[in-house]
Design a protein that fits this description.
The complex is a heterodimer of chains A (193) and B (193). Chain A has 193 residues and is of the alpha+beta class. Chain A contains five helices and three strands. Chain A has one domain. In chain B, 34% of the residues lie in helices and 25% in strands. The N and C termini of chain B lie far apart (89 Å). Classes of the chains: A alpha+beta (193), B alpha+beta (193).
Chain lengths: 193, 193
């Protein structure tokens, strides 16, 4: 009995150190869980802000197309035709008054001749337009999608948003059936990411 | 260890005392970490609720048509919503034990579209081309006389066709947590009907 006591001496320290170690590990894991979730929550806010800003810009793009449908449709078709002439030599080329730089379609979407972007659809805003997201930048591209087999056309609007001091660029795409772009067509509530 | 003590008496007491001290120090440290983590988790929880409110109210307001928002704005250029609006809670919103200040702002947003163009029938005539609605080689564009249209109240039909929606959500009261920020987002609703 006495021999057993001699062998057990010092075990209390070992046990306590073990328990203390376990407690510290649990605490550290718990603390680590918090530090992992904190940046995730910030990213979530960035995502929400970019999401709604993009939807707003898409709405403005739809508004512009509906306000100037002739300018958009014809300039887009001429733009596509010019692209085709570069690969198909049998097609008559556009003359210099038509193949301007920028092209009319590029004027519509706010692209400059040096590849830059301007206008309200490309973050070229004034005053408090996107306050409180000042410093955010965005660009917009608009395409007309033909689907003759289904006898329909659709407008695709792509908005890329980059918030201030953020590396991530979130891109949002929406497709709207051509019928909805006609006068009287309701476009509210059809936006999809 | 045993051999160094001349007497066995009191050894167990010393062991237990040292072990107890170590346990107390470890427990204090761990409780500090756990407490910090708990506060952070609580902070995260409130942040999650605030973001949820932000998305919910933003979806609600952006689903209302431009016509209805414009009617509610009446003759005002902007309005702050910090009271129940269309049966949805704004102002002080309570979820469980937590309270949030949810404020929305509707603002008639003036904007301008630059470099607007239209078909130039005069040039089509002088180029001796017969205009065809489906032939891009017969289309010429020119800048509109008023190539930059400003949308403001004075321009009749084009008056403020865009409404900017800003929503801010701020956690209030509850437990005292420093640096709780305000969560904000914006979007635009246009007259696309």
């Amino acid at each position: 009995m006495k021999k057993n006591n001699r062998n057990n001496r010092g075990m209390a320290l070992v046990i306590v150190l073990g328990i203390a170690g376990i407690i510290l590990i649990l605490g550290t894991v718990y603390s680590r869980m918090y530090t992992d979730s904190n940046p995730a929550a910030r990213l979530q806010l960035d995502r929400i802000q970019a999401d709604f800003l993009a939807k707003g810009i898409q709405n403005i793009a739809i508004y512009k197309i509906k306000k100037y449908p002739d300018f958009f449709i014809r300039s887009y078709r001429q733009y596509v035709y010019k692209q085709r002439t570069s690969s198909d030599s049998s097609l008559p080329k556009l003359d210099s008054d038509q193949a301007t730089s920028p092209l009319p379609y590029e004027y519509f979407i706010g692209k400059t001749s040096n590849g830059g972007a301007q206008g309200i659809l490309n973050g070229d805003y004034i005053n408090d337009f996107i306050e409180p997201l000042n410093g955010a930048s965005y660009t917009t591209d608009i395409y007309l999608i033909n689907s003759k087999d289904f006898n329909s056309e659709a407008v695709e609007i792509k908005v890329a948003v980059q918030l201030k001091d953020k590396k991530a660029i979130n891109t949002y795409k929406t497709t709207i059936h051509g019928d909805l772009m006609k006068v009287g067509g309701r476009t509210s509530g059809v936006l999809t990411e | 260890m045993y051999l160094k003590f001349k007497s066995k008496k009191g050894v167990t007491l010393i062991e237990i005392t040292i072990a107890f001290l170590i346990l107390v120090v470890a427990a204090l440290g761990a409780s500090g970490i756990i407490s910090h983590g708990h506060k952070a988790t609580y902070h995260d929880f409130r942040r999650g609720e605030a973001l949820q409110l932000l998305v919910d109210r933003m979806n609600f307001l952006s689903s209302i048509s431009f016509a209805n928002l414009s009617t509610d704005l009446g003759g005002r250029t902007s309005a702050t919503i910090d009271f129940p609006y269309r049966d949805i809670e704004f102002g002080l919103v309570t979820i469980g034990n937590n309270k949030y200040e949810v404020v929305a702002t509707l603002k008639k947003q003036p904007l301008k579209f630059d470099d607007l163009m239209e078909l130039d029938f005069e040039k089509i005539f002088t180029k001796n081309k017969k205009y065809k609605y489906d032939d891009p080689t017969t289309w010429y564009f020119k800048k509109k006389n008023n190539s930059t249209e400003n949308y403001n109240q004075a321009s009749g039909d084009y008056a403020y066709a865009v409404i900017k929606i800003t929503i801010s959500v701020k956690p209030v009261e509850g437990r005292i947590i420093k640096d709780e920020r305000t969560y904000e987002a914006i979007t635009f609703v246009c007259n696309t009907e």
